[in-house]
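Supplementary Methods S3. Complex input for the 1,6-di-O-phosphono-alpha-D-glucopyranose-bound model.
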Amino acid sequence: MQIEMITTHPYNDQNPGTSGLRKKVKVFQQPGYLENFVQSIFDSLEGFAGKSLVLGGDGRYFNRAAIQIIIKIAAANGFGELIIGQGGLLSTPAASHIIRKYHTFGGLVLSASHNPGGPEEDFGIKYNVGNGGPAPEKDTAAFYQRSQTINVYKTIAMDDIDLDNIGTQQIGDLKITIIDPVSDYAELMQSIFDFPLLKQSISSGYITLLFDAMHAITGPYATRILVEMLGAPAESVINAVPLEDFGGHHPDPNLAHAHELAHVMFSDHAPTFGAASDGDGDRNMITGRHIFVTPSDSLAIMAANARLIPAYAQGLSGVARSMPTSQAVDRVAASYNIPCFETPTGWKFFGNLLDAGKITLCGEESFGTGSNHVREKDGLWAVLFWLNLIAKRRQPVADIVHEHWQKFGRDIYCRHDYEAVETPIANAIVGHLRSQLPILPDQAFGEYTVKYADEFCYEDSVDGSISRNQGIRVGFTNGSRIVFRLSGTGTVGATLRIYIERFEPDVSRQDQDAQLALAELIELAEQFCEVKKRTGRDAPNVIT
Ligand code: G16
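Predicted complex, serialized as structure tokens:
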């Protein structure tokens, strides 16, 4: 194989965000843009000569073209084997599992997750390390640093690889293995959950279900597992065929974007259980007949019931949640006397805790839940967890949720997103919030008295690394909180996220609408950050 050294120039915007580098497709299509970033990753890593790399993506527009480019750069940089999902497809959790199962050096996952796809939309790339998890901050900082000085990348001249036929091809020193993207993952799920019980509950009609794959990667995974292995009727999986533009929708599993599912779940002919996943299959939305389960509640309920699932029957070593996630899981941990960790937003922060065995389950308000079975959040795993729970407890979703609130209290919760805010305005909002931090403590606003106001700083208890400026928190003496942060995954302007929660122990007051129950705190949030005033908007773009 003849290695070619191609002269290039740095791009100044290749700083990975919350989850890898996400930009418009047009940005990635600039000459050398993708090549620079991939070469910067390889230049920052050591010891991969002759080793294996996993490669796959969520099938969005530019996925196939990007894979062909990466194959050539990986070959020129000396990898010994590439393990690629058939058709260039791999869900994020499946990629994580394959890295772990086959002990590869790492993997590249091509996805912009829940962001829309298509020639005018978004693309993304992230590097996962040998434990199967997203590269930690020290690595992503090194990738960025290298991208700022890069002046050459390596590639080889060769024909495009056939991605569609399973099997092995040898090209010079490089072995390319095309694998079925689903089978290893399906086998893993079978080892975690009680498949015979699930099969029986579905075939007897006790559980009826609807899964919305949103024309994204989980279509083939859900069809294989829910339909072929567990016997659900084929029509239980909707929007099952992955499309490059996700059918023109945002593959974002929430009530706003998974509206087809939401419509059915709140209708008279709703099945027992409904769920959706996102572009790359790591997020999940859980619903039952006429009920939506917030991701924060879902995490707490999973933690409280984990012993009912075969793989977690021995109990949990600990749990973790991202800082803006509600404190519901903290109450479960306290009651079961297990540790609960609070990390910054971003799945990469759970990796060390999982590797060290300090936690078994973790999750985020952004529709992500997972366990020590892989090192990514996992959409279908969460779906199977809930199905297993329903089958074991023989209760509808609404009863499981209400019983949980009765026992632990309810953390009433919502998130308001203001998307595509002009960056200078967003920065001014953050500056304005920062300026109030010293003066807010002890101030009273109606029934709310500020207990603390700060910027979240995280010290990793395993490696001692410190991550500063991870969101602005205003906590009140009654346990309520308002959190403000700028998203690290958007591609246009800035997205301001406002997270609001209030604890309600009184059972007679738990069944309130979240927006109404949180109205006073929502007002206070505006008073603190002035997003409406400064942007001239009258409402958030998305409420979850
Ligand atoms: C990614 C990260 C998550 C994070 C989410 C939202 O998810 O993996 O850990 O919670 O983004 O991040 P932000 O609030 O910064 O936009 P995904 O599913 O987009 O890869």
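The mean pLDDT is 96. The two ends are 51 Å apart (CA to CA).
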